[in-house]
Amino acid sequence: MKIAIIGTGYVGLVSGICFSDFGHEVVCADKDPRKIEMLGRGEVPIYEPGLDTLMAKNVEAGRLSFTLDLKSAIDGAEAVFIAVGTPTRRGDGHADLTYVMAAAEEIAKTADHYIVVVTKSTVPVGSNRKVQRVVAAASPELDFDVASNPEFLREGAAIDDFMKPDRVVVGVETDRAAKVMEDIYRPLYLRDFPIITTDLESAEMIKYAANAFLATKITFINEIAALCEKVGADIKSVSKGMGLDGRIGNKFLHADPGYGGSCFPKDTKALARIGQEHAAPISIVETVIKVNEDTKRRMTDKLLDLCEGSFNGKKVAVLGVTFKPNTDDMRDAPALTIVPSLVGGGASVSVVDPQGKREGEALLPGVTWEEDPYAAAEGADLLVILTEWNEFRALDLKKLSGGMNNARFADLRNIYTREDAETSGFLAYESIGRSGFSNQRESWSKLPFTTAPKNEEG
Questions:
Q1: Residue among 18, 28, 228, 263 flagged as catalytic
Q2: Are strands 382-385 and 315-319 parallel, antiparallel or unpaired?
Q3: Rounded Cα–Cα distance for residues 167 and 159 (Å)
Q4: DSSP H or E run through 67
């Protein structure tokens, strides 16, 4: 069958490429000439492992194409997927549906046959009803149905998530629309992947509830990590002990500098706003949002302590600035809170990230970009790991500490241990939810023109 995708951002592009690999004819439409030109040359405008190879395969097979012309994309299509952005609206925290509704209106004015308008974008509960009304108002004679089909793609593992999903959620109102959606996902039906068919509102709510729950797990373990630091417990042991409980599970129980990315920050804010608007506040989610911001600030305080209360005049090497490994996405990354604090405090900051420079150059002004962790750490007073890229999991710590001016280490992804740092010559080490060590007197006495801090005896 023929499918049209409106929007070639992360969700639209991954969905379109994977649908074409199912054997469907897929046309991806976008208004951005630069994106369409790039895709036409075989270049993927986002970083997602394996996506370029899969795209090339299906373009060559004639199943996948890209266009600026919405009419040619929709012509003969049985379903049109809306996969445009729904950014957080300024002022009220709600999802901005401007692009979704504009796409719905354009579909209505362009289509001339029965079509299922499928919302793939993450939208607040009730949005598909609005899409229905927009399409009907723009083209009263059009025969159509609306479906909700939220995505559950993890950046860095999106192809596997699409091809081998935990579940597919489809919200529909008619048997006719349900049959079209069943045909689209037939390859997954045949392989017995769970497909939940429900009403529009329930499909919309599943997406928000799932993401908010995962964000809650992350935030909970980060608060437990803060307590572990105070009482002398080890968060890795605590997380393992909790995760072995089948009622809890071990996923999303890893202490970190706070969640970020394209989904959790935006979706938690939108869900909290939905609750407020319907006089059913989601107090847990509202707290999660606050605690996550507090967690990012707590990381900055850790670094400040390692720098004896001032970043001024210090050189800091930061490894990883994307919100997670295997993506170039910087949206709401902890680095966007932490790195500006370093720069604003007077530090000279060197950054290494395998994919972060493309977005990071604009988002992190005042930093120096390096390709090599050892070059970045040369002469540094502090080494910080913010993102757990594989490239940072087997570093030569002795070489790093040996090249630093003052060998202090903030491992904010708990990749290494206190013992690793101590035996490698670091003078101070901090992680999350575990005990570190500090020999600040020795550390700071190595700095030129300084003395030991005045609040120390002797």
A1: 263
A2: parallel
A3: 14
A4: strand 64-67
Residue type, 300: T
Closest C-alpha among 364, 391, 213, 387 to residue 299:
387
Identity of residue 250: N
The CA-atom distances, in angstroms, between 115 and each of 75, 84, 176, 181 are 10, 18, 10, 11
Tens of pLDDT along 31-74? 999 999 999 999 999 999 999 999 999 999 999 999 999 999 99
Residue 342, SS3? helix
Q: Where are the alpha helices (DSSP H) in 417-456?
A: 418-423, 440-445
Residue 238 is encoded by which pair of tokens? Answer: 């605590």
Which residue from 448, 446, 445 is spatially nearest to 456, judged by alpha carbons? Answer: 445
In this prediction, residue 262 carries a pLDDT of 85
Nearest Cα neighbor of 338 from 373, 313, 303 is: 303
CA 28 to each of CA 3, 81, 144: distance values in angstroms, whole numbers, following the listed order: 9, 9, 20
| Span 14-21, average pLDDT | 98
Rounded to an integer, what distance in angstroms lies between the CA atom of residue 191 and that of residue 162?
13
How many angstroms from the chain centroid is the CA of residue 275? 23
Active site includes 18? Answer: no
Q: Residues 153, 168: contact at Cβ < 8 Å?
A: no
> HSE-up of 116 (CA within 13 Å, CB side)?
26
Going by C-alpha positions, the residue among 157, 101, 153, 154 that lies closest to residue 124 is 101
| φ/ψ (deg, to 5) at 421 | -70, -40
The span from the CA of 211 to the CA of 235, in Å, is 23
pTM equals: 0.89
Helix 335-344 to helix 283-306 angle (10° resolution) is 40
The span from the CA of 105 to the CA of 99, in Å, is: 10
Rg of the chain over CA atoms, in angstroms?
Answer: 25
Interatomic CA distance for residues 327 and 10, integer angstroms: 11
Q: What pLDDT is recorded for position 89?
A: 78
Q: Within 10 Å of residue 157's Cβ, how many Cβ atoms? A: 15
Q: What's residue 450's pLDDT?
A: 39
Local structure of 123: helix, strand or coil: coil
In 148-244, where does DSSP find H-type helix?
158-163, 175-184, 186-190, 200-231, 235-243
C-alpha distance from residue 122 to each of 55, 125, 245, 263 (Å): 24, 10, 31, 9
Mean pLDDT, the chain, integer: 93
Contact 82, 120 (CB under 8 A): yes
